[in-house]
Amino acid sequence: MWTEARIKKELDGNFWFFDQEGKQHHQFVDPTWMPKYKKSNNPYAIVIKKDPGAKWSPESYDLILEMRGDGMSWPMIGDIFQVPVSTLTDYTKKMQRIRAMQAERDANKIKVEEVRRMIAAGYDLERIRKETGYDRRLIKDVFEEE
């Protein structure tokens, strides 16, 4: 393991690096140079500013589904909304889950109303379960509400 003094001794001031195109570059760096960091717990960390994210309107999801139905690709839709494809697909998956949960809640509301109507008509728990096929726990919860 090298100490900081040994590392500084080995530095000759030449800094070689490659750019994104693969070209080699050279830059002279003073061997005694030390970087200055502003209020960072980790002085070697890269500071990344968090993107506030896209602003989605209430009808964005329906528009995205319509565009996909018309055969548009994700990159094309991303260009229209000015967001990366990953952000667009994450938003679409999130909205699919939300819509599925809303549909399930709506379906349960209908089931609860039907069970309430049957209770008012004088049906017992077993008869309601046999006729509707609903979960026993759902029916029992409605019975306990009454």
Structural commentary:
There is one protein chain. This protein is mainly α and 146 residues long. It has a domain at 57-145. The chain is built from 6 helices and 2 strands; from the N terminus they run αββααααα. Strands 1-2 form a two-stranded antiparallel sheet. A hairpin with a 5-residue loop joins strand 1 (14-18) and strand 2 (24-28). Helix 5 (125-132) packs across helix 6.
Concise summary:
The chain is mainly alpha-helical and about 150 residues long. The protein is built from six helices and two strands.
| Proportion of beta-strand residues | 5-15%
The profile of the biggest β sheet is: 2 strands, antiparallel
Number of E-type strands: 2
Strand order of the largest sheet: 1-2
In whole angstroms, the N-to-C terminal distance is: 75 Å
Q: Count every helix, treating DSSP H or I runs of 4 or more residues as helices.
A: 6
- Name the quaternary structure: single chain
Question: What letter string, H or E per element, gives the SSE order?
Answer: HEEHHHHH
Low-confidence stretches: none
Radius of gyration, in Å, reads 31 Å
Task: Name the descriptors.
two-stranded antiparallel ribbon; 146 residues; single chain; 6 helices; 2 strands; elongated; 7% strand; mainly alpha
Q: Secondary-structure blueprint of this entry?
A:
Elements: H1 4-10, E1 14-18, E2 24-28, H2 60-69, H3 74-81, H4 85-120, H5 125-132, H6 136-145
Antiparallel strand pairs: 1-2
Helix pairs in contact: 3-4, 4-6, 5-6
